[in-house]
């Protein structure tokens, strides 16, 4: 079903590594992705920090919160930095409930109690959940299925199913299990990226501009009982990012630099 997309994606990944990721220092590229991913992953859930504001927060910390930005949003970004860094340092081994609970604790440590008094970071919800126009199932039954989802994900990877397909399937199912009181979207996108990063594939960043399409793809799982739209969206989003960054680098290397130099010499 996804043969053409897999072929195109894999070819583009090879070019992206040659032109972009392998040309950076590892530490710089991790930070570059951390800022972009943290901005958009939190923005999808309503955070108002821009990429530049997130970068400043990364560099300066709480001593340089942009004027007018809520403190809780700053803490949300800072916690996302910590969760991303924990994930990057802990890519080895299978997904476990212990791992995702630890990641959730880090992700929501300084914001969960503010938004949901009485809820505990790193612990599953003890009430039924809803989001937008979706009422999720019985929380106790859904939580019991988390371990099965994790086992099925590992088996799918062992069978050689393409990691992007596995990431899309995992993410769709995880969001409808909705096991935590808050942060299910952010941690679900983090975990989908762990699947990709384990296979040395580029980070998938769903931009806030694509939020409406992303949400519609998730709704199609409920309405049409298919992950097809979400998986296609994952492939397209990943390829668009890689293509855009490759094109931007070529433009700044050839056209912009040459044009600027020509204008300078004319002066």
TrEMBL record:
<dbReference type="InterPro" id="IPR003812">
    <property type="entry name" value="Fido"/>
</dbReference>
<dbReference type="InterPro" id="IPR040198">
    <property type="entry name" value="Fido_containing"/>
</dbReference>
<feature type="domain" description="Fido">
    <location>
        <begin position="95"/>
        <end position="236"/>
    </location>
</feature>
<protein>
    <submittedName>
        <fullName>Fic family protein</fullName>
    </submittedName>
</protein>
<dbReference type="Pfam" id="PF02661">
    <property type="entry name" value="Fic"/>
</dbReference>
<dbReference type="InterPro" id="IPR036597">
    <property type="entry name" value="Fido-like_dom_sf"/>
</dbReference>
């Amino acid at each position: 079903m996804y043969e053409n997309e897999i072929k195109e994606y894999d070819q583009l990944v090879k070019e992206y590594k040659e032109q972009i990721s392998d040309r950076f220092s590892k530490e710089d590229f991790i930070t570059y992705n951390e800022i972009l991913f943290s901005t958009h992953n939190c923005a999808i859930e309503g955070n108002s920090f821009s990429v530049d504001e997130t970068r400043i927060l990364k560099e300066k910390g709480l001593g340089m919160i942009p004027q007018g930005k809520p403190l809780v949003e700053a803490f949300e970004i800072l916690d996302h930095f910590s969760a991303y860094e924990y994930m990057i340092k802990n890519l080895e081994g299978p997904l476990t409930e212990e791992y995702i609970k630890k990641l959730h604790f880090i992700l929501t440590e300084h914001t969960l109690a503010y938004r949901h008094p009485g809820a505990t970071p790193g612990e599953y919800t003890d009430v039924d959940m809803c989001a937008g126009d979706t009422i999720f199932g019985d929380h106790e039954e859904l939580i019991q299925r988390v371990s099965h989802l994790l086992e099925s994900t590992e088996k799918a990877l062992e069978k050689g199913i393409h990691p992007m397909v596995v990431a899309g399937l995992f993410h769709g199912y995880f969001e409808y299990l909705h096991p935590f009181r808050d942060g299910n979207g952010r941690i679900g996108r983090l975990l989908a990226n762990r699947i990709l990063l384990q296979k040395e594939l580029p980070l998938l960043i769903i931009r806030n501009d694509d939020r409406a399409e992303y949400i519609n793809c998730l709704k199609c799982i409920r309405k049409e009982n298919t992950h097809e739209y979400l998986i296609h969206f994952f492939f397209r989003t990943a390829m668009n990012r890689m293509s855009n960054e490759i094109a931007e680098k070529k433009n700044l290397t050839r056209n912009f630099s040459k044009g600027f130099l020509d204008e300078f010499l004319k002066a």
